[in-house]
Structure formats: C-alpha cells, structure tokens
Amino acid sequence: MTKDTALLLDRSQDDFSLSRRIYSNWDYQLATSNDNVRDYETLNYSFQVIKDAFPTVKVEQVLDSLEPNVSYYTGEATDDYGIKKIDLVYYEQGNEENERILELNAPNTNFHNFYYTFPSRSQFRGGKNLCVLL
Predict the structure, then answer these.
(1) Is 1 exposed, middle or buried (0-12, 13-18, 19+ CB in 10 A)?
(2) Quick one: CA dihedral 118, 122, 127, 132, positive or negative?
(3) Per-residue pLDDT tens digits for 7-33
(4) DSSP at 108
(5) Would you say which domain of life the source belongs to (predicted)?
(6) CB atoms within 10 A of CB 57
(7) pTM score of the predicted model
(8) Dist. CA 12–CA 98, nearest whole Å
(9) What is the pLDDT of residues 34-57, one digit of tens each?
C-alpha cells in the first residue's frame, strides 16, 4: 500500500472493520465522511512493528568411546517468543516415511539447555543406520 491509498472499511450494522497483515511500520489516517460531510475529522495512527528474531538451536553430538551405539546430545534452544517443545526425530536410513518422534522437553521458556542419551528411551533395533534430527 502506498501513502495515497484509500481503503474502505467493511460495515456490519454500526461496526466497521479492516483486516491487513502488517510486516513493517505503518502510518495511517482515519477520516470520517458521509453524504453531507467529506473528511470531517482526520485521526492519525501508526503501527510500530518489532521484527521477530529467528529461533536458534545449537546441538553437539558426543559418541560414547566405550559403547559405539550410544550418542549423547547436548544443546541449547532459544526463541524470543518461547520454546514450546524440543523433539528428537529419527528414522532408519532409506525409510524416512517411518520416522519416530521423541519429545525431549516442553520447557515453555525463551532459553533452554537440554541433554539426551540416544537410544536410551527409544525402541531401537541394532544393526540399522539411523538419521537423527533435533
């Protein structure tokens, strides 16, 4: 929309509405008009948009030197709107449609450290190559 764009509000009885997605700062005016009066009163408003930062996840895999089938995952997750959950997703290589999801944490915080030993809680069968995603 440009500064000179005029938008009509939707009317439902005595209520007026307009729906738009706003992605950057936006200044706007409301002007009242009817059949008898044009631009009777003009009110100025503005939206100030605070851009969302991307969530980050840092994960480090450590292989057990004594048990080659065990991996340790340590990491941290951050998001300015909060972290709802952290999942570990795994599947047998070449069999992506049969992925399994393990919920590691549901912290409901903006920052969370996590630690997981894989395959400690899974239904893992040895001898298969696995792809693991966090």
Answers:
(1) exposed
(2) negative
(3) 778 888 989 898 888 888 988 888 888
(4) -
(5) Bacteria
(6) 14
(7) 0.51
(8) 50
(9) 888 887 788 899 989 888 888 898
